[in-house]
Amino acid sequence: MTTITTFALIALFQLLSLLPIRLLRCFGALVGRFLWLSGGRARQVTEENLAICYPDMPPAERVKLAQSSLQHLAMTALELAPVWQRPVADVMATVVEVEGLAEFRQALAADKGLIILAPHIGSWEVVGLYLAEQAQISSMYQPPDNEAIQQLILKARSRNGANLVPTDTSGVKALLQALKKGEMIGVLPDQVPPLEGGGFAPFFGVPALTTTLIKKLAKRTGATVMTASALRVEHSGKFRLVFAEVSEDVAAADELLALTVLNQSVEQCVALAPEQYQWEYKRFKKQPGGERKYYQNK
């Protein structure tokens, strides 16, 4: 990316941050409609993932869900501008409801460490800001190649005290230390990890390479594990935050059991608002035995 392109992108980003979130969602709906009509990779992967995960859903219903999903995908992208650029208090004012708050606060008060799983649904960036307002939090971060974009993201995500650590051994050690101090960490549980950092477990009944990091951290520290999702409230510029407890089996010695519980916790988040999940991500791109079964030519 050239310097001029980077400058233009950041300028556009700052301009978008001035617009109401509700208006940006309207724009996102239009962009999502274009993504559908263009028939590109985003639509193809979304349709394939929905066919994989909801094989019994009537085709017409899956089409409707796919169309809505692409609209929410565009909304997620456009919402980044105000969520990253506006004062934290302004972003927090968009959170109009918090479900499971008592359980979340109880887990924090236990002082034995808290692992928050934030799947790719709704606005996980809002989740991050909200958590940092409640207590000290450390989260893994993989910087982009562009230095200017990297600084933009770092400033946005750490502006209310979040500690960002690298996605390497030193980062894992930092997360472990934070949990041992009774602090909170945030992890994205539904990304495809490297083969050496994961194991296969069912996700919507289909084998998916799943991170073992959460199981290892929970087992070693005894930390509580919860999910957190910031879901869009329809016809508004607001969010509804939902916390849910995850079974202690997420730290089970049986790896398959632990990873299955982890994936089930993500499935439960998806069930809250399937259209807001990031279905265009190639979650099943790696399969047991190294076979390429899905996303052919995508």
TrEMBL record:
Example of a GO biological process term: glycolipid biosynthetic process
A single cellular component GO annotation: plasma membrane
Subcellular localization, as worded in the UniProt entry: Cell inner membrane
Entry keyword Protein transport: no
GO MF annotations in UniProt: acyltransferase activity
Protein keywords: Acyltransferase, Cell inner membrane, Cell membrane, Membrane, Transferase
Entry keyword Acyltransferase: yes
Identification of the protein by name: Lipid A biosynthesis acyltransferase
Organism, as annotated: Oceanicoccus sagamiensis
